[in-house]
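Deliverable D2.4 — example input (structure tokens):
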């Protein structure tokens, strides 16, 4: 089993749907340790992505083209930290998926490239209470699943499960990157909004692959 451009389009549409559904939760999480705009930023970005997909005159040829459209749209419409971070993630992922269909190792390559993009852009490592704390265990779980022979859908499910655990594990952490770091010790006790949106996006990827 492999994933093709139809999966990528479905992933993007499901991402938009779940981000919109969780808009208020993401706003509330960001209100606790940031400036309360993460749900709005992500909703604006993914709404714009879907509008661009809907307006296409010809279908996009491959997964890389879909991810590139997401990257450029998020960069130009999402204000704040998350826009360039997710934008770079999708851009790197697009470059890593220059093949028509993804097998399990192709999915791993996509996730690894996205994580590398986020780290290159944000300079955060694990334990700093950012989206990196969801992306890193997700990528590790994907590697382990793919190496044990899991299908692309199961690789993505493992990644989404690990992103969930990683997001929950940000609660006790003290933020040392991004806006939440301004709170110092007072950032502990709250879940990082970007880690939650990462979990939502990876769950959407897994569901699109079912
Ligand atoms: P802003 O903080 O500019 O308002 P958002 O609220 O949209 O932007 O996004 C905040 C999220 O961005 C945080 O929850 C965190 O996950 C992520 N983030 C912020 N700075 C970094 C960084 N340097 N590296 C990785 N992720 C970061
Ligand atoms: Mg914010
Ligand atoms: Mg902001």
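Example output (designed residues):
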């Amino acid at each position: 089993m492999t994933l093709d451009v139809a999966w990528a389009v479905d992933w993007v549409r499901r991402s938009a749907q779940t981000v919109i559904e969780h808009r208020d939760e993401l706003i509330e999480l960001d209100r606790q340790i940031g400036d309360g705009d993460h749900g709005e930023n992500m909703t604006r970005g993914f709404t714009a992505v879907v509008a661009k997909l809907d307006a296409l005159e010809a279908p996009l040829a491959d997964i890389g083209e879909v991810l590139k459209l997401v990257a450029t749209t998020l960069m130009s419409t999402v204000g704040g930290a998350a826009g360039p971070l997710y934008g770079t993630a999708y851009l790197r992922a697009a470059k890593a998926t220059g093949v028509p269909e993804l097998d399990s190792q192709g999915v791993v390559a996509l996730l690894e490239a996205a994580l590398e993009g986020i780290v290159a852009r944000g300079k955060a490592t694990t334990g700093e209470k950012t989206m990196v704390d969801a992306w890193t265990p997700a990528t590790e779980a994907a590697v382990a699943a793919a190496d044990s022979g899991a299908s692309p859908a199961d690789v993505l499910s493992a990644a989404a499960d690990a992103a969930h655990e990683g997001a929950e594990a940000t609660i006790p952490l003290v933020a040392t990157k991004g806006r939440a770091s301004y709170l110092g010790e007072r950032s502990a006790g709250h879940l990082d909004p970007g880690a939650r949106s990462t979990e939502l996006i990876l769950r959407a990827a897994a569901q699109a692959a079912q």
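The radius of gyration is 16 Å.
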